[in-house]
Amino acid sequence: MNQSTTRKPPLIEKWTTEDVHQWLTAEVKVQQSCADRFTEEEVSGACLVSFDKQDILELGIKHGPAVKITAYLESLKKACKHQSEFPEYVEKWTKEQVRQWLERHVNVYSKYAERLREEDVSGDCLVCFRKQDLVDLDVKGGPAVRIISALKQLNQKPEPTLQPITDQKEAAKPTEPGNAQAKEINRPESYENTESKRDGIVEKDSKQIQLPFDKTSEKKEIQQPKPQNTGVWNKGTVVQTTVSPDASRSTVEIENILDDLLKEDLKKFIFRLRLHTESKRKPICQSKLEDKDSMDIAKLMTDHYGSKEAPQVAIQTLKEINQLKLARQLEERISQLMQMTLSKESVRKEANQGEKLKTLLSCGGNSLDNYDKFVVVVNKSNPEQLHYLQFLTKLKLFCVLDFDHNSAASGGLCHSYRESRVANLHTPPQFQGQTESVIKNLNLYKQTSWVFCNGRHDLNSNSNLALDYKNWLRKSCKDVEQIVSFICNPEVLLHGRYLIIFLLLSPVDTEKDPVFDIYKAFIKHIKEENIISVCESQSTYLKWRELIKEKCDFDIEHLSINELTLSEINGTIIAMGRFSQSSVRLLPSSGSSTVVLTQKDEDLLTALDVLCTNQCESVYDENSSEFHEFRISVEEEFYRGGKVKWWNFYFCDKDKEKPFIKRDKYENVMKLIRSQWRDSNDMCVLLNLFHHPGCGGTTLAMHVMWDLRHEFRCAVLKDNSIPKTEVAIQVIKLMKLESEKPSPVLLLVDSKETDNPYDLVISIRKAAVEENWKVIILNCVRSHSPKQQYRQHNQTQNQFITASLTPQEQKDFEKKLKELEETHDKPENFYSFMIMKNNFDQKYIDDLAHNTLENFDFSKKESELFAFLALLNTYVEESEISLSLCEDFLGMKFIRWREDSVLERMNPYSNLLIIDRIQESGGYEGLRILHQTIASACLAELERSCYTKVSEITMQMLHYDLLFSTFVVKNRLMRSIERMLIERQRKKDGDERELFSPLVHKIHNQQGRQTIQEIFVKASSRFVTSASIPQALARYLYINERDYPEALKWAEKAKDIKENPYTFDTIGQIHKSNLKSNMDREKQEKSHNPEDLDTNIKIAINGMKAFKRAQQLADKEDEPQEEPPDDDSEDYPRKSYNVYGYVRMLEIAFMVFEILSKLPFFDEHNPMKKKYLQSFLRGNKLNTLCDEDNEITNWYVKIINEHERFLVKLKSDVKEIFDILNCYFAYIKGVCEFDSMNHRIVCDHFKKYVHLFCSTPEEMTKEKEHQSNLTLKLDVQEQKLFLEKNQADTFSGILQHLDKPAEKIEKVTECYAFLQKTGNQKQNAQMKINYILSNIVLYFLKPKSKHVKSYRFLSGLLSETLQEKGLCQDLPDPYYLALLLFWPSPTEENTEIGTYVTAIRKSSHKYLSKLFNKRSTIARLYLGKGEGLKRLVSKPKLDESFLPKMPRDTLAQLWWNGDIFKEKAIISRLHRVSGTIEQGAVYANYGQQKILVRPARLSGIRSGFSTEKVSFYIGFAINGPLAYDIKYEN
User: Fold this and answer.
1) How many Å apart are CA 1488 and CA 1133, to the nearest integer?
2) pLDDT, tens digit, for every residue of 575-596?
3) Distance (Å, whole) CA 601 – CA 736
4) 187: buried, middle or exposed (CB in 10 Å: 19+, 13-18, 0-12)?
5) Are 436 and 922 in contact (CB under 8 A)?
6) Are the C-beta atoms of 879 and 928 separated by less than 8 Å?
């Protein structure tokens, strides 16, 4: 630091304007232009003493130099040399380096750092700043104090590392030593003599004018020898150039051009020059230009305009005096000078390639977190390089485009990467299709995608061979270019948030190389600056650079790393990780031990956010200012209204005197979890924590989890939309990680009250292996009636928390506020915290909303956006608007705005807003209101004070095209808007949902039908592909308004958009409701009108058609797997339409039966007339039954005859439905309360059916006597009766005889031997099929029976039957037999088997979907090691090996979890088949033949569509072959 020296008071008042100018340039060392402004404004010493900072600013001087001049002036007035309190190196910082220091080391908002840079605050200016100077630059008080404090702390810290300057303007600053020196050297000799004389005067008499700088300092600055001529000087000082040409070089070039002007032309030049007004600076005054030669003019211009602008002014002035040739010459010289300067600067900057690598990977920072994702393109590697490529495991890789066909094999890069990280192996065609589907199928964002762009030789398949360039260009190039297009799509990766790295591990010698083609593909979509090249050698780099330069006209020099070895590259990148990147993450294990959670294992747990025992430890240097600032920001974000992070608990644990607030229910939840762990015998326990939104329920759950992290392996479910089977697999994996004895798992799930958590419980139980395993699911349920929900459930496994604090909790919040006041500025503005501290006081919230919205102007964009957020956040939980969309809406897109700029733009509402990180779609930032209650209060305030109804805000939101264009983040907003309109809440007093969404209820109560219909009509034009909007309007119209025609119109529109069970069900419900309404009306009216009968039957027919179609779609083989609308029909739970269509068809049918039974000639109370009804419904003509003859009766008869076909078929349809439903309820376990409800409905209707149609036993006996027939027919009947009694009249019934005595199946086989020879051809075919199966079953039970036919005979009979039936058979039975008898052997292929697999899959889906849709099937027969029938092994035979040793329950558990296949008895009898997994599908491989099989357990394969070699056992199920015990080869 500089030492203070006392000097005699200078006689400043006697200074001339020249003295002031000299003091500014030589002592204060400000830019020449600044000093010139003082001269232009005639500021002498007498004036200067009266100047303050504001006066200097009003001269047009920027804030940085103004503060510096003010500080030096204050020191001058005190007669002492200015001293700095800070290290000397700070004064050498450029303004760009000041900005870097502020952003990266002080962690202030970038907008403040940028503000200082704009005001030319370099290091020498910054050291003069005080708090008020920063405040005057609009820096808030808190950051201002932080900056001054950080400056002072530099005295005790090592010098921070800052990047070299990259801004060309920086180099021209005269305040830097090099430039100041250059200026001293460049002074004309006459000026030097003047200086000497002036110094002499000062020495002689201090009472005379005293210059403000001492002679010794000046001598140091002029020790360089004076140039004899400008040419020599030019050559000698080039080395001092930094970024742009310095003043002296520009001066020389201008002077050389001016020397070529004639004297008259020079006068013209001077004349035009003093009139030049196109610059921001004032023209050079005439007095300065008088009597000046070309050298003086050139010097004046450079000093006045700066080295960059002066040549441009000269060129413009030359053109004005028509000296075009000279103007062109000057342009060329300046251009060459710029190129030379840039080249030298480039050499200087790239001397440190390690720093350059860091800069390229981190946008100039020191962390790899600046980019969200990296994309690596790599060519062939060699094994020696692998050790130095470990840095790839540290990068957040989105995908790797690999052109090495041996990469997946041992010794390859992919193989090496997968030893420590997870990568799914893909091919280019897998990236084709809808963007969202590709992302979901390939597990993008969650796991690295490793794409083989030119073959993959480890698969040993001709289709995966590498291609030469010509064939690659023709066959594969298009697919790989499609990947590039996919990557560069902003729906996949946001522009500017990812970096492309070309990692060249081997040379690219020619343009005929796929790697070069991919480079060209990338630059079609993104700028070259987004691509960097890392080359393994200088020679590889030079060839690559030359290729791009020649073919793409771009020099990659500044975007390349070529001088570092792979070892240096590897070390540099690994060192860029966080403070703790080398530290391990730990999980609790048995015996109070811990195990390591490896990165690879964590990669596999894509659905879970795992909480480790050492969470947050060693991530930062906790003594650093960085950690302190990080803590302040995290705490501020949480208490303002952000989501709680593990860091919040960690901070409180570190500071025991300031603990995290324990809610009143904390101990209850803790005890609940521990008691269930200790006492419950259930493997998976569901504990519900019901809570009001925003009352701290999830925070409480996470607090409990944090404190249990040493007892349980804890994790949070990231996304509720992930398939529950996949979550279950990952939970079990977490439980078993690195430990022989599984550890208990505590899983936190955040859900809505309409979600069904039991799906996850069932999935975990299915995936579990042992009963003593334990998983506890803590399910945080956002509910609008948590207390009621709690009372409706088992209270021993549930807790609730409401928006109300206990007295103790209120004291805790008061204490926490005092703690926050010690560490944070204005904690009273932490509104979410204050809402809870005030016990959710509505008046506090209302006042906050009122004060914030006092001057609300809906015509402004900012106000509109806030109103939209208030609407969304009130009615849709977890909703926000993406930051990028906010920028678009506010018109900020074309400027590089930072996130805080959006908040700044949203003033005065920004104090109620917060930015969240959204994990969907690879992650992005979204804007929302701090708390749901604030949003709701703001909405109410807008209605109360601004007379703005929610319907108006809704319509305004629907008005903007911007909010509805296709884009991933906009899709999420669109889903939120759609949910706001259609999502219904659960009723407070039950499990059913409200009829409509809360928003629709509110608008209906305020304004009624017309407004509701207008909103839905507008919404339907926005959500053109969504059936939910017109469907919801249809429901509103038929339920609330009973306007059936209009409701039907909108329901039909929904159906036209999307034909699914729910849209057709809505149509059916409209007809059913209409029919019910008519029947109720007719009951109240005494007279009956035949026209009503006609109308009602037509309504019933349409209703039956709609429900039948709904059921068909639910049963369809190719039913879409995407989620149905949020507005599922009539409170049906998602994905479980199942048999609702059948039940509703029954309801309408019995309504029709009721209508018919009220007719005068079908009166059910009259036994004879009831007989007429029965007879008519069995198919007899009405005219022969009804003997009444009057006008009304004839009219009724005419109407019934018109609808005879429908009415007569109704009984048989009802009987068929009953049969289907009886099977459903008998064989399928009910999955929800709706199945129980439907079962009650069906039972009630069956009682009506029995009452209406079934005869008494006596009547049945009489009927049998009347049906005696020929002996053959009686024999046939007798055989069929035996089969029916023994449940062997169906294919599935015969299969079940595997578990029954041999005598029964022997008799069954005998029966079928007789029946297959009788009957018609169609009956015979099915009899033959059943006969073959009965033989196979009999072979297993009694192989020596005389009724057992040989394998050859059965195969021949089956072939004959298959020839007759073909491949279009509805039933899967013949194809099942084909799998059993024709499955290929290791030595013999069967080319037809694939056809039979396809046929059985199609027919089983078609035939069995009614019963088994989306439910698992099991195999009763397995592929063994023998030949003929001996190669089939039945499950009962396999069970015989275990049953003497273990109970059936234990054996069933072994089958259930798949551990049965680890037993020697199974391994010795079953044949293990080799195969592959491709695109998520499993194939059995026999030579070149691949047969599609299904995994028996979803846990058999993992997500990500990785192509792998596997082996497994084959089981035969009714819907095709199953793969059991899938094992990965590697």
Assistant:
1) 45
2) 886 644 446 889 998 878 889 9
3) 11
4) middle
5) no
6) yes
Q: Are 1334 and 1309 in contact (CB under 8 A)?
A: yes
- Compute the distance between CA of residue 553 and CA of residue 547 in angstroms, rounded to an integer: 9
Task: Give residue for tokens 């005890």.
Answer: 671
Closest listed residue to residue 424, CA positions, set 1525, 1479, 1487, 1512: 1479
Burial of 103 (0-12, 13-18, 19+ CB in 10 A): middle
| Beta strand segments in 209-274, E | none
Segments of 208-259 assigned E as strands: none
Question: Could you tell me where the DSSP H helices lie in 688-785?
Answer: 697-707, 724-736, 758-767
Model confidence at 227, pLDDT cuts 50, 70, 90, reads very low
What residue type is assigned to position 1140 of the chain?
Y
How far apart are the C-alpha atoms of 603 and 450, rounded to whole Å? 14
> String of b and e for 943-970 (b: at least 16 CB within 10 Å)?
eeeeebbbbbbbeebbeeeebbeebbbb
- Does residue 404 contact residue 413 with C-beta atoms inside 8 Å? yes
Half-sphere exposure of 996 (CA within 13 A, CB side): 22
pLDDT (tens digit, 9 = 90+) per residue, 991-1010? 677 889 999 999 999 999 99
The DSSP bridge pattern shows strands 1421-1423 and 1432-1434 to be antiparallel
Q: How far is CA 628 from the centre of its chain?
A: 30
pLDDT confidence of residue 213: 40
Partners of 225 in beta bridges: none
| CA nearest neighbour of 1376 among 1336, 1425, 1318 | 1336
DSSP letter at 358 equals: H
Dihedral in degrees, nearest 10, Cα atoms 310, 312, 317, 321 = 140
CA atoms of 1519 and 684, how far apart (whole Å) = 30
Rounded CA separation 247/303 (Å): 7
Name all contacts of 1269-1272 with Cβ < 8 Å and 24+ positions apart. Answer: 1272/1318
How far is Cα 1308 from Cα 1300, in angstroms, rounded to an integer? Answer: 12
Terminal C-alpha separation, the chain: 65
- The secondary structure element, H or E, covering residue 585 is strand 585-588
pLDDT in tens, 239-270: 333 344 556 678 888 888 888 888 888 888 88
Instruction: Please state the length of the chain.
Output: 1530
DSSP annotation of 407: T
Buried b (16+ CB within 10 A) or exposed e, 791-800: eeeeeeebbb
CA distance 159 to 157: 6
Identity of the amino acid at 222: I
Task: Answer whether residue 1298 shows pLDDT above 70.
Answer: yes
Q: In what order do the strands lie in the sheet with 608-611?
A: 608-611, 713-717, 745-752, 775-782, 684-691, 798-801
Is 774 strand, coil or helix? coil
Tokens (6 digits) for 1510? 């596997």
Query: What's the CA gap between 363 and 264, in Å, rounded?
Result: 54
For residue 758, name the pLDDT band (cuts at 50, 70, 90). Answer: confident
| Alpha carbons 726 and 722: distance in angstroms, whole number | 7
Q: How many CB atoms lie within 10 A of CB 336?
A: 12
Phi-psi bin for 1319: left (phi > 0), alpha (psi -120 to 50), beta?
Answer: left
Tell me the C-alpha distance between 545 and 504, whole Å.
Answer: 12
Residue in 1346, 1528, 1305 with CA at minimum distance from that of residue 1436:
1305
Cα Rg of the chain, angstroms:
42
d(CA 1498, CA 762) in angstroms, rounded, equals 14
Ramachandran sector of residue 891 (left: φ over 0; alpha: ψ -120 to 50; beta: rest): left
